[in-house]
Design goal:
311 residues; globular; disordered N terminus
Amino acid sequence: MPASHAVDDAVEISGLVKAYDGRRVVDGLDLRAARGRVTAVLGPNGAGKTTTVECCEGLRSPDGGTVRVLGLDPLTQAHDLRPRVGVMLQDGGLPTGVRALDMLEHVARMYARPREVDELVERLGLGSFARTTVRRLSGGQRQRLALAAAVVGRPELVFLDEPSAGMDPQSRRAVWDLVRELRDEGVAVVLTTHLMDEAEDLADHVAVVDRGRVIAEGSVRDLVADAEDRTLRLEVAGELDVDGLARALGPELQVRAAGAGSCTVVGTVGPTTVAAVTAWLAEHDTLAIRLTVGRRTLEDVFLDLTGRELR
C-alpha cells in the first residue's frame, strides 16, 4: 500500500469476504474512501454493499480480507473508533420510546466536543417534532433525527445509509447541504443510496458494487464520460412500439423501454438520430410529448453495468 493511502484514506478494504450459509455475498471486495470526500457506494439489492458497510462499522465479522477504519480494526479496536465515527442506519436504530430532542441531547452528552444541538435542530428542521416520541415520527422525520445523531459528535468519518429516504424535497436539500458541509470540514462521508441524483449531486467518488465486488469506480464525470455516447429520451401520447423503433434505428443504437409510452435511445446520438426518430413517429402517426437529448447519466451507467432485471 502506498504511503499516501495511510494518510488520505479513512476506509481501506482489501479482499473482503463475507458469506452466509455458504454463499458469498461479499467476494474479494476492494474499496477505499478518502478523508474530506464523499464516497458513494451504489449497487442493486443483494449486491453486498450493506454487508460491506456493516463490516466497516464493526457490526459484522469478515470471513476474509482486511478492513481498516481510520487506521484501526473496527472489531478489535471498536472502543477507540466509536468516538470518531458516526453511523446512520437505514432503519434508524433509534430507541422508539423517547422524545426526539431528549434522544439527541442524550447522544450529544456522550461526546467530549459535540455540535450544538440547537444548531442541528434548526438545520434539519427537528423543532416541529422535538417533543414527539420516535415511534410516532414519520419515516422522513426519523431519517433527519438519525442523521443528527450520527453527526452530533463531530465524527471524522460518517456512514450514511440512504440518508434522504422518505424525505420531502425541502428536507432532502437540507440533508445534502449538511453532507457538503461535513466534507468541506474534512470529514470522510461514505454514502449508500439508490437515488442516482443524490449520488451525482454529492459524490466525489463512486464505487459500483455488484455480486460482492466493485465492478466500476471513479468520479461521476469519469463514469459518464464517453465523448460519443448520448441519450435521447422520448415520451409519446399513447402506446410506443419500442421494438419497432429499435428496428428502424438499427443495431448501432440501444433502444430501451422506460415505462408506458416512453423509451431511451443510447449510443452515438446526433442530429440524424433525432431526424430518424421524428420521421418514424410521423410515419406511425404518433405524437411526441417530450423528446430530449443529453449526456448519459449515472443511472444510465449503473443500469449498463448491473443490468435491468429485478433482483
